[in-house]
């Protein structure tokens, strides 16, 4: 065994900084799922009838669906009746009208997470929707955004206040029949973010949602819908954390993006759900369906993700490139450590003429983790002149982890062009020795080497988050050597 | 400054160094010559603390301190510098970032404040000129796509940036053409100082035309078999390693050079 590996194997006390629990009074449903539970959920949210019917239809269909097992993941089957499907902080009114009415305990929680919601301390230039377990507790910068015509609110509010928009687009990108987890989400989704950017508007600030799981034994099922109307632009970022618990918790989200003619959506994720401890106990099961429909001509969607958390990640942010000349991009850094398992990648479905897509995936495996890239590039019969470029790189730290690449390419059009590159490398003993010989300690050296490896993806993140992402990798790698 | 006594070291159970004794004083330049497989590179790696090699007996002290019980990075911060024979690439990490991290790690160790980006850039530009490297290379990944000569010049540049107490140069001349050899040698000569020792490991004497050593040692089969002054290297060139009863295929093959 080589020396770096010896060091790597002397595992690891990795500190998860967001593992605290907020002590707050909550309304929580008893565990279990039924039509009654869904009806109650819909009532609490004061949803219009169409929404309840939509949920029930999804639920009935879901009951007939099978949990998928094709992913390169090992975990005990989830008992969906042992999960609670709704948990929300108690409040006097059904919706806080202003931040003054938000429970100070909650404000403190977000402050601790580095997301100040107070008027005076708000993140400059970034509007935040804060989702706590099953509900959105606050949304900042609503007024200035409204002035620009941008709707930025929780999806629960949108269902009540903009039912026509919601009805027009909800489920059009990810139908409830799409897959098991998307079906479940359609039945029980609790909250999430809604964004509408009107024609020709460049959203004046970054939008973001911060998802926090707090309650034990509760699933989080958020649903996000972003619509960029013709010629508009929006950049959106989501962040996620959860307390450290010995039990696994389920997170099954659906994100739908719709880009009309000449619209552009940049969607960035920094996912740092609790990954479980060094023995693989606890952590979030993250089963997420994210998809964008580039329905307009020359529309563009970029997914950028930095995935460092979760015990299990099952996630394939995808683009359906229907509009002529539309562009899909996927930039991903997925880091797994200890016993984490990630099966992640993307699907680029080229339907329109001259559509292009770029996939850059960087997988980093440490400890005893498993890291899979799974990607589909598909060209429909009318995708004349379409092209894709894919680059998948894996970096191994130590010799007990695994990296796998499963690229699928299907082409029904002879003019389509695919380029694919893949590499696997190791943080080598020689690299470590060079760094250390120059006085650089091991942790710093690993973090520097890994950050170098991820450079192409980090440069796609909004500036302030690129720095965050770099730091997050550093924390996530803590103890991976020495 | 450096005192090596009866040093034995092995790799994967095979003994390579079989009792090295060497004293190097501050201000001196020592050259270690020897055929391939004699243990020259092993000696450099052991001194720098590469734990792929196991020290089985003997001692090494630097300025009175036991070097062998220190980690690689501690030795580096105490002033041990190794210019690698085959510098490794670190993709995506810029030379600038790498060197700045290194310089600041050393400064931190000495209780000095970190150099900011502007100060560092100024210094790096000056030093890069000294080794005839285009400052644009500072933005490239560490050794990424560098030619052999560029890699070697980069190593010397790092030595000049870090100003070590003991600079160990492992076959710094190998793979260099005459012009590059001149640049690298000028760099090394610029390192010569009263408070600094230089240990050069080389197969050929041609490097010693440019960097004139105070002492020359011949290493064979893990031991120093002969020591002398500058003239020993010249004699070796004339008569080959066989003169000392040492087998060396490569010298024989290259004797026409």
Automatic annotation (TrEMBL), chain A:
Domain of life according to the entry: Bacteria
Family, as annotated: Belongs to the iron-sulfur cluster assembly SufBD family.
Pfam families: SUFBD_core, SufBD_N
PANTHER family tied to this protein: FES CLUSTER ASSEMBLY PROTEIN SUF, UPF0051 PROTEIN ABCI8, CHLOROPLASTIC-RELATED
Organism listed in the record: Marinobacter salexigens
Name of the protein this chain belongs to: Fe-S cluster assembly protein SufB
InterPro entries in the cross-refs: Fe-S_cluster_assembly_SufBD, SUF_FeS_clus_asmbl_SufB, SUF_FeS_clus_asmbl_SufBD_core, SufBD_N
Domain SUF system FeS cluster assembly SufBD core: 211-453
Record domain SUF system FeS cluster assembly SufBD N-terminal: where: 146-203
Automatic annotation (TrEMBL), chain B:
Source taxon at top rank: Bacteria
InterPro entries xref list: AAA+_ATPase, ABC_transporter-like_ATP-bd, FeS-cluster_ATPase_SufC
Residue ranges constituting the ABC transporter domain according to the UniProt record: 2-246
Keywords from the UniProt entry: ATP-binding, Nucleotide-binding
Family: Belongs to the ABC transporter superfamily. Ycf16 family.
NCBIfam families: sufC
Entry protein name: Fe-S cluster assembly ATPase SufC
Biological source species: Marinobacter salexigens
């Amino acid at each position: 065994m080589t020396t770096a590996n010896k060091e790597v194997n002397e595992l690891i006390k990795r500190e998860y900084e967001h593992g605290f629990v907020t002590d707050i009074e909550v309304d929580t449903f008893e565990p279990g799922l039924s039509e009654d539970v869904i009806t109650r959920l819909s009532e609490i949210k004061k949803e219009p009838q169409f929404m309840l019917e939509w949920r029930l239809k999804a639920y009935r269909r879901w009951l007939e669906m099978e949990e998928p097992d094709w992913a390169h993941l090992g975990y005990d089957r989830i008992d969906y009746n042992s999960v609670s499907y709704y948990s929300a902080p108690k409040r006097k009114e059904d919706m806080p009208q202003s931040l003054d009415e938000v429970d100070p305990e909650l404000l403190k929680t977000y402050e601790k997470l580095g997301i100040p919601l107070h008027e005076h301390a708000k993140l400059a230039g970034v509007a935040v929707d804060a989702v706590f377990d099953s509900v959105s507790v606050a949304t900042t910068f609503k007024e200035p955004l409204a002035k620009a015509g941008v709707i930025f609110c929780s999806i629960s509010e949108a269902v009540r206040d903009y039912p026509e928009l919601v009805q027009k687009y909800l489920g059009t990108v990810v139908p409830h029949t799409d897959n098991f987890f998307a079906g479940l989400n359609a039945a029980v989704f609790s909250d999430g973010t809604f964004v509408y950017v009107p024609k020709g508007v460049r959203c004046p600030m970054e939008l973001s949602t911060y998802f926090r799981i707090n309650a034990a034994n509760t699933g989080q099922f958020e649903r996000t819908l972003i619509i960029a109307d013709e010629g508009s632009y929006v950049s959106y970022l989501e962040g996620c954390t959860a307390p450290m618990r010995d039990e696994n918790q389920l997170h099954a989200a659906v994100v739908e993006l719709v880009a009309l003619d000449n619209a552009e959506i940049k969607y960035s994720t920094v996912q740092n759900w609790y990954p479980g401890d060094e023995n693989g106990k606890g952590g979030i099961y993250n089963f997420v369906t994210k998809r964008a429909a580039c329905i307009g001509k020359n529309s563009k969607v970029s997914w950028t993700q930095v995935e460092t958390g979760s015990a299990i990640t099952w996630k394939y942010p995808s683009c359906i490139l229907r509009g002529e000349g539309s562009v899909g991009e996927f930039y991903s850094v997925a880091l797994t450590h200890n016993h984490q398992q990630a099966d992640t990648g993307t699907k680029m479905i080229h339907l329109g003429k001259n559509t292009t897509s770029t996939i850059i995936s960087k997988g980093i495996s440490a400890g005893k983790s498993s890291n899979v890239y799974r990607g589909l590039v598909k060209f429909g019969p009318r995708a004349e002149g379409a092209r894709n470029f894919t680059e998948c790189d894996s970096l191994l730290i130590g010799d007990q982890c695994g990296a796998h690449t499963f690229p699928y390419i299907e082409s029904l059009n002879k003019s389509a062009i695919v380029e694919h590159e893949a590499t696997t490398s190791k943080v080598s003993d020689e690299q470590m020795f060079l760094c250390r010989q120059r006085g650089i300690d091991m942790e710093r050296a690993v973090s520097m080497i890994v950050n170098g490896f991820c450079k192409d993806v980090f440069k796609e993140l909004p500036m302030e988050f690129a720095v965050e992402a770099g730091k997050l990798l550093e924390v996530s790698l803590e103890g991976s050597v020495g | 400054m450096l005192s090596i006594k009866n040093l034995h070291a092995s790799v994967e159970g095979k003994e390579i160094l079989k009792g090295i004794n060497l004293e190097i004083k501050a201000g001196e330049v020592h050259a270690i010559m020897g055929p391939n497989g004699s243990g020259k590179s092993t000696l450099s790696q052991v001194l720098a603390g590469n734990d792929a090699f196991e020290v089985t007996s003997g001692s090494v002290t630097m300025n009175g301190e036991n070097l062998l019980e220190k980690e690689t990075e501690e030795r580096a911060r105490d002033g041990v510098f190794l210019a690698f024979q085959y510098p490794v690439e670190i993709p995506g990490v810029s030379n600038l970032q790498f060197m700045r991290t290194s310089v600041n790690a050393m400064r931190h160790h000495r209780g000095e404040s970190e150099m900011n980006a502007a100060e560092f850039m100024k210094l790096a530009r000056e030093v890069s000129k000294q080794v005839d490297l285009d400052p644009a290379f500072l933005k490239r990944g560490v050794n990424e796509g560098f030619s052999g000569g560029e890699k070697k010049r980069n190593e010397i540049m790092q030595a000049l940036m870090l100003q070590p107490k003991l600079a160990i140069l492992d076959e710094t001349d190998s793979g260099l053409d005459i012009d590059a050899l001149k640049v690298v040698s000028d760099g090394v000569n610029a390192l010569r100082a009263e408070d600094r020792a230089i240990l050069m490991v080389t197969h050929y004497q041609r490097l010693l035309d440019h960097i004139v050593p105070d002492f020359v040692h011949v290493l064979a089969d893990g031991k120093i078999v002969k020591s002398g002054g500058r003239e020993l290297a010249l004699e070796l060139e004339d008569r080959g390693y066989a003169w000392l009863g040492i087998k060396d295929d490569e010298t024989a093959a290259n004797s026409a050079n």
